[in-house]
Design goal:
The protein has eleven helices and twelve strands. The chain is of the alpha/beta class. It is globular, with a radius of gyration of 18 Å. Bound molecules: iron/sulfur cluster. Catalyzes the conversion of dethiobiotin (DTB) to biotin by the insertion of a sulfur atom into dethiobiotin via a radical-based mechanism. Keywords: 2Fe-2S, 4Fe-4S, Biotin biosynthesis, Iron, Iron-sulfur, Metal-binding, S-adenosyl-L-methionine, Transferase.
Length: 334
Amino acid sequence: MATTQSTMRWTRDAIQALFDLPFNDLLFRAQQVHRDHFNPNEVQVSTLLSIKTGACPEDCKYCPQSARYDTGLEKEQLMEVQKVLEQAGRAKQTGATRFCMGAAWRNPKERDMPKLLAMIQGVRDMGLETCMTLGMLSEAQAQALAEAGLDYYNHNLDTSPEFYGDIITTRTYQDRLNTLSHVRTAGMKVCSGGIVGMGEDQKDRIGLLQQLANMPVPPESVPINQLVKVSGTPLDHLDDLDPFEFVRCIAVARILMPESHVRLSAGRETMSDELQALCFLAGANSIFYGEKLLTTANPVAEADMKLFARLGISPEQRKAKPDLFYDATAREAC
Ligand code: SF4
């Protein structure tokens, strides 16, 4: 898809001005942008499966999968390919069009690659779009995943460059940007966003959105997560973010990245139906669907479908002839 936004550089002042708009004006503007680029009554639905849980060596302060925090999480080895494919089949039956597979790793090991490639090929053969989140990737690994048919790679920036060091010390912001660059070069679509409510200031939320919007090609998928406070993690005691500030983040993301799917992601299980509806009005048009979002609870599929019905929203159908890959030669980041 041509990206009008790719040539637009957003300054922090310009983004601040959007956050400063009266709430109704901001939502109106976001909804206008949304209608110019998407069917406003469709929401893309993805299912996320944890294919390898816990014991991660990284120290992300929000994450129950880090081996450094005692969260009572049961660790699991990398799942067998057949089990993953069974789960993908179930996800398809419940209406998912994209199947996301997440592993709690610093980066994939070479010995894991054959299994990962088989998972991608198997899920793709079912007619589902594929997405993985496996940590940092080398150029060669990104290339191998793309060649197996991986459509999307998720790697979040998490927060602003300035606040980042308060949350993670075991990998740098630049490490994350490098992985995203390898994903782009390999021709895959990028899924990248962040987490709000981690004790950051508004200027950090602005800094995160600026980083995402000013990429040469902004991510096709932008998850905006609300911190899930898991007992035992260093952030488990924080105050909740004002829900209206959360909606503002969604609306500003929609305006800054008009052609991206903005995903209402982690934290949804604690949101009221009314708050989720406001997020859809602000331009969120993707959700995770299913009972588990990696290791934290997610509203059950039935409740999601009921909410969609009450709001007149339909799940977005996968395009018959999907534009799954970019021509990497024709164009220039868990
Ligand atoms: S967010 Fe990802 S990299 Fe960080 S601790 Fe959790 S699983 Fe590991």
